[in-house]
Amino acid sequence: MYQTCATPNVQIRRPEVGIRCTSILSKRKSCRKRTTVCQGGSAQQGRKGSKVFQPLGVGIVEDVKRKAPWFTSDFKDGINLRGVASTFFLFFGCLAPAVAFGGMMSLATGGLIGAVEMILATAGCGCVYALTSGQPITIVGSTGPVLALTSALYKMCLTYSLPFLPMYAWVGLWSSGMLMLCALTSTSNAVKLLTKFTDEVFSALIAAIFIAEALKDSLSLYLHAESGAEVALLSTLVSLTTLFVATTLANFRRSPFFNKKVRNTVADFAPTIGIVIATLVSMVVSNRFAINLPMLAVPMEFAPSVPRAWVVNLFSVPLWARWAAAVPGVMVTVLLFFDQNITTRLVNSSENRLKKGHGYHLDMAVLSVLTAYCSVFGLPWLVAATVRSVNHLKSLSVMGPSPTGVGERIESVMENRLTGFSIHFLIGISLMFARSLLSMIPLAVLMGLFLYLGVSAIKGNSFLERVGLMMHDPELVPQLPHTTDIKISSTHKFTLIQIVALLAMYQVKNSKVGILFPVLIALLGPVRTGLEKMHVFTKEELHVLDGEAL
After folding, report:
1. 120 Cβ contact partners less than 8 Å away, ≥ 6 residues apart
2. N or C: which end of the chain has fewer CB within 10 A?
């Protein structure tokens, strides 16, 4: 059914539940209405009309029924060159954070959870999640917020003289139970109340963490005299080589050289080519000038970081502590719940034109089981990782020109389970059989990949684009809805509020009260609602700034 507006060539389609739509705002003030173009199976629109809570298990059953018909094609659709390119890219893209976060986790937990546990959890949980989740494009992994919360929990255990791993296990088991309750009652429907305001701030935070960690590692070489100036300079050169080659080749599909198939193939393999070239550069220069670069710190032995049994002794903490673990368990649940759902919201966005539907409640049930598994075995908790998930999505996407004429948009996505499974299967194989080969990769190469992952995730984030807009020459401002349909001052005010939220979250994450970090994530939704209730912005302004993207 169509509804015609006074503006020529503008139609409003009233979508049925289950149909994904893209909203377009008419620029003519006499007809400032929403135009929707339906593309196929919904990722988010189908949830708009659903209740927040449903009878036990109904949401999970609906997700299984929605995803089951696609299960066979989820494997067939991944067998092609684009799938191979995505697998190799994200193999390094997931291995590098696993090793890096493993090292940071070791420092944060007194060596009780380290690189071995992180890589093992990444490989095992990644394979299971790819095979059983509702949205297999999502990649699970450790994140900065989870690391901060684990560090706060370790410090709390030191304060109360409690053994960390048993307490960690009980906190994780409590959280697992709460997450399963959320899955059974379809609590993920509450995320429909969130908007782009939350999505943009959260994804910007995660991208900032990636970029900050890469820069911190590079700068540390200059601050430590034992490294030597030549090591610091070569590491910087290698990191920038990785970033430059990967970024340049990723844009190769828009160049006039060769034919379209060659351009697309080169662009698909851009990150992998960047890693190979940067590694070769480092080897040649290192051998020529006898410079020893820090290499990837891969554990040489497949064993826990400290001498212990793989299964944590749950009964080595007093009874009161087992019950008290429910309190930090709530904080872990809040963090994992929002981290998981915000990331899957970004993947399932109508902008991405996915056809196989969503599975939020099934995702949450799988996450609950994985959280219990990691807790009992003393492995780090994993959750949907924003930067890796967004890059996985982009590596599987076919791009085309944007209707606005500015940049590109996704035309289709090769939705499948095979790439996600293959990525993590290869990580597991590398941990078992290829540790010596991985240890030959300079750490600087993977720090360059960190930069690429962070920068790639930033692209398309309207919030960060609006930050840049604040420094634009007023006469050269691009013609976009938030610059032409509303006052530019309102756009800047909305952006400043997001900047304050981002800085507050980043500051709390690194502070002594880091365990309260999940509360700030949960407050993003109410803050956005408050902006509307307090009439800080008009509904028209919020529609332009915080409505569905084109």
Report:
1. 379, 428, 431
2. N
Question: Of 164 and 97, which is predicted with more confidence?
Answer: 164
The rounded distance, in Å, linking the Cα atoms of 439 and 434 is: 9
The one-letter code for the residue type at 531 is L
Tokens in use for 197? 């305001």
Structural domain of 105: 42-401+408-546
- Measuring CA to CA, how many Å separate 496 from each of 466, 500, 502? 10, 6, 10
Using 50, 70 and 90 to split pLDDT, how confident is the model at 133? Answer: very high
φ/ψ of 413, rounded to 5, equals -130, 135
Q: Give dist(CA 371, CA 382) in Å, integer.
A: 7
Q: Note the pTM of the prediction, 2 decimals.
A: 0.79
Residue 23 lies inside a defined structural domain of this protein: no
Give the mean model confidence (pLDDT) for residues 101-115: 86
In one-letter notation, the amino acid at residue 115 is A
CB-based contact 169:329 (threshold 8 Å): no
Per DSSP, 442 falls in state B
Tell me the two tokens of residue 355: 């056809």
The count of structural domains within the chain is 1
pLDDT band at 35 (very low <50, low <70, confident <90, very high): very low
In the block, residue with structure tokens 């049994």: 309
Q: Give a yes or no: residue 36 inside a domain.
A: no
Q: Is the dihedral of CA 319, 320, 323, 328 positive or negative?
A: negative
The pLDDT of residue 546: 83
Q: Which helix (H) or strand (E) holds 347?
A: helix 326-348
What is the rounded CA–CA span in Å between residue 174 and residue 284?
52
Helix (H, G, I), strand (E, B) or coil at 278: helix
Q: What is the C-alpha radius of gyration for the chain, rounded to an integer number of angstroms?
A: 24
**Residue 228 is assigned to a structural domain of this protein:** yes
Measured distance CA(25)–CA(267) in Å, rounded:
33
> Per residue, what are the HEC states of 489-502?
HHHHHHHHHHHHHH
How many C-beta atoms lie closer than 10 Å to residue 58's C-beta?
A: 15
Query: Considering only CA atoms, which of 134, 87, 108 is closest in space to residue 388?
Result: 87
Per DSSP bridges, beta strands 140-141 and 34-41 are unpaired
The torsion angle over the Cα atoms of residues 516, 194, 27 and 34, rounded to 10 degrees, is 180
DSSP 479: -
Query: What are the phi and psi torsion angles at 505 (to 5°)?
Result: -65, -40
> For 437-452, what is each residue's pLDDT tens digit?
878 888 888 888 888 8
Helix axes 517-533, 539-546, angle to 10 degrees: 140
Please give the structure tokens belonging to residue 318.
């007093």
Round to whole Å and give the CA distance between 120 and 128. 12
CA distance 279 to 442: 7
Cα–Cα distance measured from residue 218 to residue 212, given in angstroms and rounded to the nearest whole number: 10
- Token pair belonging to 130: 């790819």
50 in a structural domain: yes
